[in-house]
Amino acid sequence: MSKVMIIGAGGVGGVVAHKCAQVPEVFSEIVLASRTLEKCQKIRAQLARPIETARVDADNTSELIDLIRNVQPRLIINVALPYQDLSIMDACLETAVDYLDTANYEPPDEARFCYKWQWDYQERFRQKGLMALLGCGFDPGVTNIFCAHALKHHFDEIHTIDIMDCNAGEHGHPFATNFNPEINIREVTARGRYYENGKWIETDPLAIHKSFDFPQIGPREMYLMYHEELESLVRNIPGIKRIRFWMTFSQEYLTHLRVLQNVGMTRIDPVHYKGCEIIPLQFLKALLPEPSSLGENYTGKTCIGCMITGVQDGRERKYYIYNICDHAAAYKEVKAQAIAYTTGVPAMIGAMLMLQRTWRGAGVFNVEEFDPAPFMEKLPQYGLPWTEKFLA
Ligand SMILES: NC(=O)c1ccc[n+]([C@@H]2O[C@H](COP(=O)([O-])OP(=O)(O)OC[C@H]3O[C@@H](n4cnc5c(N)ncnc54)[C@H](OP(=O)(O)O)[C@@H]3O)[C@@H](O)[C@H]2O)c1
């Protein structure tokens, strides 16, 4: 029996609230806190059991500390934005509460995400006997756990990993992002990066692409990008020779993005306009549909998984493991599209394993550092079935 506090009432926060509410034997009390109280209240109204709501600015550590002292949760599930990761971790240290998130820290004025800032908290969490679990969404999150599962059961050595993320859904808008527009566009417009033979190799944004035939979807063009799980998997999968991340985009999405970039709307430096300072990307976010609003008319599926090669008992093997998630089915269950669903379900499962002390440690951890078995077992149970197969 445990009280949790979810921070962030967006697309993912809504799914986490729904999924935690479905498991009262673990999440006995739930508090949903976010910057805009009405969004918490809207989610609360969708749930079959009562939860508490609160307003908080998670950039403000002392405000957060006051709220945590008042609420006294055992665990904080941070599904606000990556900008808030460090202030929430600081508040957790101050109040002796465990921490979980789905996206690594990124400074607001610099489009550069990496784990260093959060890994630097290792000693402080360890000394206080607290646990911080980083990147427990789908990618990062389940994709890392798929790799740990493959290493545990199917490979003596993993040589290459290709993480492939396909959203073949239709939301009916000419241009919208499936998670927070600011974070999504910063990620997609960044230079590509992958790891090969001990070195990181940089590419122009979306410069490398190829087609892949996704199960239940068909061929889609996917583009090489840098993604945060590459950094932790290079550290945690011994002997890895190459790891890359690919994401599919429609031509419609890419054309809009190119125009927005060309006219300066994706800039993150301030622009002076009629006596005000405006950050173009933040203004663009205000114009675009909220990710949490996309679900109602979303159709189609996502397919996210890992193609892995390596050796077992001296034999070369090629292995593919993936999940398929249906947008309309996700909406029917929790009023959210599949991207939010595939992020929120793993966050809930990670929280459950922490609260049940199945996954336990003092310090800062990435998900692949724990035994994948209990997580893999719970994925289909809570809505994310997975399929694995060996390829010729
Ligand atoms: N690992 C994965 O697979 C994965 C996939 C998708 C997304 N993610 C991550 O999940 C997180 C949530 O994404 P989302 O799509 O749900 O975004 P979203 O719909 O934009 O929701 C973000 C929520 O955080 C709130 N928030 C922002 N700043 C805050 C602050 N200073 N204090 C308190 N609340 C604050 C927002 O409040 P307002 O409504 O007031 O703005 C909003 O409710 C992001 O970090 C994203 O990168 C991870």
Can you walk through the features of this model?
The chain has 392 residues and is α/β, with parallel strands linked by helices. It has a domain at 142-336: Dihydrodipicolinate Reductase, domain 2 (2-Layer Sandwich). It is built from 14 helices and 18 strands. Strands 7, 8, 9, 10, 11, 12, 15, 16 and 18 form a nine-stranded mixed sheet that branches. A hairpin with a 2-residue loop joins strand 15 and strand 16 (315-326). Helix 1 (11-21) packs across helix 13, helix 3 (61-71) crosses helix 4 (85-95) and helix 13 crosses helix 14. It is globular and about 55 Å long. The mean pLDDT is 96. Bound molecules: NADP nicotinamide-adenine-dinucleotide phosphate. NADP nicotinamide-adenine-dinucleotide phosphate (NAP) binds at residues 7-13, 34-36, 39, 56-59, 79-82, 84, 102-103, 137-141, 179-180, 183, 290-292, 339-340, 343.
Brief synopsis:
With 392 residues, the chain is an alpha/beta fold. Helices cover 35% and strands 29% of the residues. It has helices at residues 11-21, 37-46, 61-71, 85-95, 116-119, 122-127, 142-153, 181-188, 228-236, 251-262, 280-287, 327-334, 338-355, 373-381; strands at 2-7, 27-34, 52-55, 75-78, 98-101, 131-134, 157-167, 192-196, 199-203, 209-214, 218-225, 242-248, 271-273, 276-278, 301-312, 315-326, 363-366, 386-391.
Keywords for this entry:
globular, 29% strand, 392 residues, Dihydrodipicolinate Reductase, domain 2, single chain, nine-stranded mixed beta sheet, seven-stranded parallel beta sheet, binds NADP nicotinamide-adenine-dinucleotide phosphate, alpha/beta, 14 helices
